[in-house]
Amino acid sequence: MDRPRFRRYFLHPRFWPLWLGLGLLWLIVQLPYRALLVIGRALGALMYLVAGERRYIAARNLELCFPQLPSVERQRLLKENFASTGIAFFEMAMSWWWPKARLARLAHIEGLEHLQAAQRDGQGAILMALHFTTLEVGAALLGQEHTIDGMYREHGNPVFDFIQRRGRERHNLDSLAVEREDVRGMLKLLRAGRAIWYAPDQDYGAKQSLFVPLFGIEAATVTATTKFARLGKARVIPFTQQRLADGSGYRLVIHPPLADFPGETEEADCLRINQWIETALRECPEQYLWAHRRFKSRPPGAPKLYEKRR
């Protein structure tokens, strides 16, 4: 995709409220990092009170995935999850507007050698990530150290899309945005030895998925990871990130490539990916995007897991 460019019509009065909101957000994120953590938690507490539908989905997911936990512990996780979501709002703005040097001080990166080895060998890398609430800031921090291309879906508001793309791509001018539906373009980049951020942890429907267990529940799991790895001749390199509790920043871990991947069957690959997802989420459940209907698609004849709500 071409680099984002400012358009004159972005100054149209209908975009003024958005510009005003973005300007206010820019002012707030000039505050010290620890102050932003406090404000973010407060925003998350407010979201917990008013976002009834999202609160229900997140609570239901925690109930489905961690039935062994006492209800009081799941409630604590739920509130912490909303606090993390509130903080993520300011982390997004930090990644867009903080000076690169200021942002880089928050990075604690491990395993960068795995990406560097793939690049040195001229082999593409599928950076297999998850939808943590720290997704935006984690990608920015890693992008300062290594060129990472990203799957991208255009935002409906052109001004927000411009700000978002410019903010994301400024950390590494060599990085590219790939339309999520542009499979051919993604494979071309992988064959050229580039690394692409890719997250297979959401429900994209039954048509392009297989039902394999996730936390003991048959979950629609995309088979694209296997196809991309095989057709792009790429390594699959897991990537996790975590906001550190002591306020010192973020731990980003690039794990060793999955050995013998792709395997014998797509079903075995999907199961292996879901097992890795379970392990990653158990380590940091409060920072995951639980507000997504992960188990929306169901196998034929299976009961729905989310109630219809007003």
TrEMBL record:
Q: Which InterPro entries match?
A: LipA_acyltrans, Lipid_A_LpxL_LpxP
Q: Which pathway is it part of? A: Glycolipid biosynthesis; KDO(2)-lipid A biosynthesis; KDO(2)-lipid A from CMP-3-deoxy-D-manno-octulosonate and lipid IV(A): step 3/4; Bacterial outer membrane biogenesis; lipopolysaccharide biosynthesis
Molecular function terms, GO-annotated? Kdo2-lipid IVA acyltransferase activity
Q: Name one Pfam family in it.
A: Lip_A_acyltrans
Where are its TM segments located? 12-29
Taken from the UniProt entry, a GO cellular component term is: plasma membrane
Q: Name one GO biological process term.
A: Kdo2-lipid A biosynthetic process
Q: How does it sit in the membrane?
A: Single-pass membrane protein
Where found?
Cell inner membrane
Q: Which reaction does it catalyse?
A: an alpha-Kdo-(2->4)-alpha-Kdo-(2->6)-lipid IVA + a fatty acyl-[ACP] = an alpha-Kdo-(2->4)-alpha-Kdo-(2->6)-(acyl)-lipid IVA + holo-[ACP]
What are the UniProt keywords, alphabetically? Acyltransferase, Cell inner membrane, Cell membrane, Lipopolysaccharide biosynthesis, Membrane, Transferase, Transmembrane, Transmembrane helix
Main localisation: membrane
Q: What class of enzyme is it?
A: transferase
Q: What is its EC number?
A: 2.3.1.241
Where is the motif named HXXXXD motif mapped on this chain?
131-136
Q: Which residues form a coiled coil?
A: none
PANTHER family given for it?
LIPID A BIOSYNTHESIS LAUROYL ACYLTRANSFERASE, LIPID A BIOSYNTHESIS LAUROYLTRANSFERASE
This chain's function reads:
Catalyzes the transfer of an acyl chain from an acyl-[acyl-carrier-protein] (ACP) to a Kdo(2)-lipid IV(A) to form a Kdo(2)-(acyl)-lipid IV(A).
Report the family membership: Belongs to the LpxL/LpxM/LpxP family.
> What protein does this entry describe?
Lipid A biosynthesis acyltransferase
- Organism equals Pseudomonas vranovensis
